[in-house]
Amino acid sequence: MAINDSDKDEDENEDENEVSELLELLEIFSLENSSLKKTIKALNRENVSLKHELECLSNKSLDDKTISLEKENETLKVEIYALKKTFSKFSNSSEKLDKLLGLQRCVFNKAGLGYDEMNNVKHFQKYLEKKDNQKVSSSMTCNYCNRYGHTTHTCYRKRNDMHKRNLLLKNKLLKVRTIWVPKGTFFTNPPGPKATWVPKAST
Predict the structure, then answer these.
(1) Which one, out of 16, 92, 98, 128, has a CA that is 20 to 30 A from the CA of 32?
(2) What is the distance between the alpha carbons of residues 140 and 148, in angstroms, rounded to a whole number?
């Protein structure tokens, strides 16, 4: 029986130790749980405050953007109005210039100053035609075809003849014959004067 009593005491001691350990663990976990609850509450409060600040900032940024866009819109309207004014001035001035050019008179038209009307005066046309003819005839004459109005550099006959000659040479229709001549038999450029010397006659 004594053995049974000692076994029971040992079992009770072990149970008490386990219970005390479990109680200590329970207290530790309860403390950790309470601290975690406090941190969760603090984080929730911080989250709510941050959400509120974010909403305020988004509203402010949207308000700022709308205000800046409205200002930009007003400035663009002012610029468009100014450009319309300047464009209307230019269009009006071009119309006025066209009217002025339409009202111009010829230099020789002196109607209203004691002269006849322009339709009856024809001497200035003859004067201008004579001047033009004199300029053309005196300044431009072709040495190739002997015609007035162009020079040898722009002569169409010379160009046509040169083109035909080149075509004939390319197609070998025109044969150019070359002959070898011994030196001294044919003088291409004889030296000296062309006239022969004659002694002076004595009188």
Answers:
(1) 16
(2) 6
Residue 161 in any domain: the answer is yes
DSSP 79-146: HHHHHHHHHHHHHHHHHHHHHHHHH---TT--BTTTB--TTT--HHHHHHHHHHHHHHHHH-B-TTT-
In a 13 Å sphere around the CA of 160, the CA atoms on its Cβ side amount to 5
CA atoms within 13 A on the CB side of 196: 1
The answer to the question of residue 164 being in a domain is yes
Residue 115 lies in a domain: no
Q: What is the pLDDT of residues 14-58, one digit of tens each?
A: 778 888 888 888 899 999 999 999 999 999 999 999 998 888 888
Work out how many domains the chain is built from and give that number: 1
In a domain, 144, yes or no: yes
Full domain range(s) for residue 147: 140-177
Nearest to 148 by CA among 163, 134, 127: 134
User: What is the separation, in whole angstroms, between the first and last Cα of the chain?
Assistant: 202
The predicted model scores a pTM of: 0.28
For the segment 142-165, what is each residue's pLDDT rounded down to a tens digit? 888 888 888 888 888 888 888 887
Helix (H, G, I), strand (E, B) or coil at 148: strand
Gap between the Cα atoms of 114 and 33, Å rounded:
122
Which residues are CB-contacts of 33 (< 8 A; sequence separation ≥ 6)?
none
Token pair, residue 32, equals 């950790």
